[in-house]
Write a structure and sequence with these properties.
alpha/beta; TIM Barrel; 3 domains; eight-stranded mixed beta barrel; 28 helices; transmembrane; Diguanylate cyclase (GGDEF)-like protein; Rev_trsase/Diguanyl_cyclase; EAL_sf
Length: about 750
């Protein structure tokens, strides 16, 4: 209902404005044929219409549905309309204040009108969307000057020059000329803003306001034609028409409410200079020898030349800016392209570059080879010396790879310590030579600290028809692991047999994922005995996998697979709990005759798991096994470097659990390891045991090891004892514990009970 009342009120304002225009036209037309005795009545429509425009603008400026910028614009227009009212009243006083009616425009009136047009221009320039750059101001001022000169020339030529009587009577030629010219500037500004867009200001309102202002200026220029009718004025029509335009614009803005701002249009080419030149040329041709027109044309020509020179200067600057921007864009694109295809750490290509290179070569059916390089023991460097040293090593390796490969191939880093080399148009022999250069260069010390090496294993494959990039990587990966299996620091070519083996391994790895759920794992136990009589001292728990298709799978095969697919943690947990349950059962059934020690292997992945120690404690509590009977075996590689595994070992010992160092002598063993790793038992690898009976050097090593462990109060267990001679030599050297086939092969729990244990306790 409220909106309906507002709509009626606005429609009433428009209707009132239209009636005032009609009244002004009627008064003027009738007055041309009759001399009125009350000329003041003719000024009522202009005054009323100006006041109506001020009221309409002020009402819109107070609307809460409009944004702040739009409301400010309409407040400025309301103020301009108020000046308009003052100008009309002053104009009426000029016309009627003398002894006789006249069309004179005084200085005060001129000031009011100029203030009105100035406020309109100011309101437009204050709009948020108006770009007030230096170039905009220069163009605006030059266009305004062009409009002033051209508009003034036309008004003078067609409206003022030939009306000397009006000039003499009214003395208003200059004021009219000034007002019309400034009015044209205001109209030009309105048109510019209307076409460029003005944020949330309704563009239709600006169009209506522009049309009303232009018509008002045209009608205002009719004053000289009213010479001889001093009681009449062109303001009778000009002011109501301009006011009606403002009232209608205010109505449109009020109805539009809060509109989303339209996107600002690109700057249009200004046609003002060209229209002005064409119009002045036509005026010059028609005006004959008019000095004023010639002078105006000359001035206009200078202004247009300045406008064009400035435009050329701006265009040159813009072209320079565009050229600079394009150069920067190209540089940025090059940088982004480089970053997208190169490794930020090493500077060599990345996986994206490798894939792009391979895809192009495959698409062109080119002959090429792919080599996959993986650092040997890189994880040890990272864990022992930190990632900073690891990154430095990767950078050294990258430099040496580029130096060895040169322009004959593309080097890329896939991630971590894996690199690829793509070699095109190189024979197999040439590939071998390049990769030998790579290996030779890597063997040189990287000079990053003691024990840091940069050796690597390389797998090589040749592209075949129908291959994809993933096929090449898979085959190179298989060959690379074969190189590692053969000791590392070498290259190895892929062959079909390896592919079949890789597929078998992949299938086996897949089967391993569900082996625990299918109950395919079981435990065996190997006796640990006391020397020399062979009395049982404990057992070592051994994991076995009975595959439904392949039968028993060797631990040397499935343990690395479990470590690779991370199932080793879950499997290790099952082994630990199952072994503890078996030990608890033996303790319950056989009492003091049960195996005194039960050794369980723990992987490095298990030790690194958060909460591993708490998990061991939980299993001990749930199974009820005596913790003194539990011996956890860890490998040298698991605790060689500082980190979570070593911290777990220390925490286990702090909780009263015993730890053994297994297979001592197979890795990067050093006696100093026994000083840094807190262990209770040292299990001497069978390679030393067999050497003790084979040569003098082996015997010396075995003897020194037992002396060292005795000095550190560490128990020593000799592994892999297979003959009586080995057992005797070990006993003579001082060993009191041993295990091996001589004393018993791995057996089931039932077999252990029948072989080693007495009858159950009643």
């Amino acid at each position: 209902m409220e909106q309906a009342r507002l709509g009626l009120r606005r429609n009433a304002l428009g209707a009132a404005g239209a009636l005032l225009v009609l009244a002004g036209v009627a008064w003027l037309l009738i007055g041309l044929g009759h001399e009125w005795s009350v000329p003041i009545l003719g000024w009522l429509p202009p005054v009323a219409s100006a006041a109506l425009a001020a009221y309409a603008s002020w009402k819109v400026s107070g609307s809460e549905t409009l944004d702040a910028g739009t409301r400010r614009f309409w407040r400025h227009l309301a103020l301009a309309a108020s000046f308009y009212v003052g100008g009309v009243v002053s104009n009426a006083f000029d016309a009627l204040g003398g002894p006789q009616p006249s069309q004179r425009i005084g200085l005060v009136t001129l000031s009011w009108y100029l203030a009105t047009m100035g406020m309109v221009i100011w309101a437009l320039l204050r709009l948020p969307s108006w770009q007030r750059t230096r170039g905009d101001w220069v163009r605006f001022l030059l266009d305004s000057c062009v409009v002033l000169v051209a508009g003034g020339a036309f008004v003078w030529q067609f409206s003022i020059r030939d009306h000397q009587e009006w000039i003499a009577e009214s003395r208003s030629a200059e004021p009219v000329l000034i007002m019309v010219s400034v009015g044209f500037v205001a109209v030009v500004t309105l048109v510019k803003v209307a076409f460029a867009g003005a944020g949330r200001l309704d563009r239709r309102a600006l169009h209506v306001l522009s049309a009303g202002s232009a018509l008002s200026g045209v009608f205002g220029g009719l004053s000289p034609f009213l010479a001889g009718h001093p009681y009449l004025s062109s303001s009778f029509i000009a002011i109501p028409v301009g006011s009606l335009g403002l009232v209608l614009a205010a109505e449109i803005q009020a109805r539009s409410r809060a509109r989303a701002p339209r996107p600002r249009q690109a700057r249009r080419i200004s046609v003002v200079p060209y229209i002005a030149v064409a119009a002045m040329d036509a005026l010059l041709l028609s005006a004959g020898d008019s000095t004023g027109v010639r002078i105006s044309t000359a001035v206009l020509t200078v202004l247009v030349m300045l406008r064009q020179l400035y435009a050329l200067r701006e265009n040159r600057r813009l072209w320079t800016t565009v050229d600079t921007s394009l150069n920067r864009l190209r540089e940025t694109q090059d940088q982004l392209s480089y970053q997208a295809t190169h490794d930020p750490l090493t500077g060599v290509g990345n996986r994206a570059l490798f894939e792009e290179t391979v895809d192009v070569l495959l698409a062109t059916r080119a002959e090429f080879h792919v080599a996959l390089l993986d650092m040997d023991d890189f994880k040890s460097v990272n864990d022992r010396l930190g990632h900073t040293t690891g990154d430095a090593l990767l950078m050294v390796v990258s430099r040496r790879l580029r130096a060895a490969v040169g322009s004959e191939g593309v080097v890329a880093r896939l991630g971590g310590d894996e690199f690829t080399i793509v070699l095109r148009d190189v024979t197999d022999r040439g590939v071998d030579e390049i990769l030998d250069r790579v290996l030779t260069g890597l063997r040189e010390s990287p000079r990053l600290g003691a024990g840091v090496r940069s050796v690597a294993s390389i797998g090589v494959t040749t592209a075949r028809p129908g291959d994809e990039g993933s096929d090449l990587l898979r085959r190179a990966d298989v060959a690379m692991y074969e190189a590692k299996a053969r000791g590392g620091d070498r290259r190895h070519w892929f062959d079909a047999e390896m592919d079949e083996q890789a597929q078998r391994t992949a299938r086996l790895s897949t089967d391993l994922l569900g082996a625990l759920d299918r109950d395919e794992f079981f435990l065996l136990f190997q006796p640990i005995v006391e020397l020399p009589h062979g009395r049982a001292a404990g057992v070592e728990v051994l994991l076995r996998w009975r595959h439904p298709e392949h039968g028993l799978v060797s631990p040397d095969v499935f343990i690395p697979l479990a470590e690779r697919n991370a199932r080793i943690v879950e499997i290790g947990r099952w082994v630990l709990e199952s072994a503890c349950r078996q030990a608890a059962e033996w303790q319950r059934r056989f009492g003091a005759q049960a195996p005194a020690k039960i050794s369980i292997n723990v992987s490095a992945r298990q030790l690194a798991e958060p909460g591993f120690v708490a998990e061991v404690e939980d299993i001990l509590a749930r199974t009820g096994v005596d913790r003194a009977a539990l011996l956890l075996e860890v490998t040298e590689t698991a605790v060689l470097e500082a980190g979570a595994p070593l911290e777990a070992v220390r925490e286990l010992r702090e909780r009263g659990l015993r730890v053994a160092l297994d297979d001592f002598g197979t890795g990067q063993s050093s006696l100093s390891l026994l000083l840094t790793v807190p262990v209770d038992v040292l299990k001497v690898d069978k390679s030393f045991v067999s050497g003790a009976a084979a040569d003098h050097a082996g015997a010396v090593i075995v003897e020194h090891l037992i002396g060292f462990t005795n000095g550190l109060r560490i128990e020593a267990v000799a592994e892999g004892v297979e003959t009586e001679d080995q057992a005797n030599r070990l006993h003579a050297a001082g060993y009191s514990l041993a295990q091996g086939y001589l004393f018993g092969r791995p057996a089931t729990a039932t077999e252990i009970e029948s072989r080693m244990l007495p009858a159950p306790v009643a």
